[in-house]
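Z., the sequence and structure:
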Amino acid sequence: METVILNNGAEMPVLGFGVLQIPGDETEEAVLAALEAGYRLIDTAALYQNEEAVGRAISRSGIPRDELFITTKVWVQNAGEHNTIQSFNNSLQRLGLDYIDLYLVHQPYGDYYSQWRALQGFHEEGRARAIGVSNFHPDRLVDLITHNEITPAVNQIETHPLYQRAEDQRIMQEHGVQIMSWAPFARGKNDLFTHPVLASIAGAHGKSVAQVVLRWLNQRGVVVIPKSANPERITQNIQVFDFSLTDGEMARIARLDAGTSLFFDHRDPGMTTRLGSIRFS
């Protein structure tokens, strides 16, 4: 597995396994299959409500803790340092862990400054090896960096061939922040898996479109967390380090960028209201 060194020196796999929208009763087996296939980065969140299942899979796997890189996130409802501390402790308990490798502020909404102050404390205490954010546009990211002691190690954002975020990545690189992709396959929207350009490149390498997309992201320096509940696809998605895309192929994929989200705009007032009002127990 290839890795990247984060701005605080922590080593992170460039390809991991995400569990967003995997039903709770399927998550444990999916994560166990991923760990058996060789994944060591597992990405979850308090919002997903499957941290306990992730924790059970980790325990069942028997893999030494120091070989794993576990990521989770604090939700908007847990604003305020006290609430963030409680959310962090709850995540640790559900996961059955005594530290988190990467802890993220999930959304740029509400009092995320108080959340970030708490995260800085977790990092200083050694209970979070690295801390970062998710879904932050460059202006919010740079503002957070400017007014705090610790620069986020990671910003996890929607990134895929149809929404490539090249300028966002450039700004992150200027500040030493690692870009991490969610929805690398655009959740199959716009016929991504049958796109003629991607299918042509996949055929040239004897690979699937999914494998080409993951390799393209990694060659761009993007950490990626594909998800699947299908054991065969889970295994296939990690088999992307035995080929490389040419400069010409990278350029062909670069031309697919539509420049807009396929899901929602975090700057849309209606979406701000909807996401900011989500509550869970």
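The chain has a mean pLDDT of 96. The CA atoms of residues 6 and 153 lie 6 Å apart.

Let me know what you think.
H.
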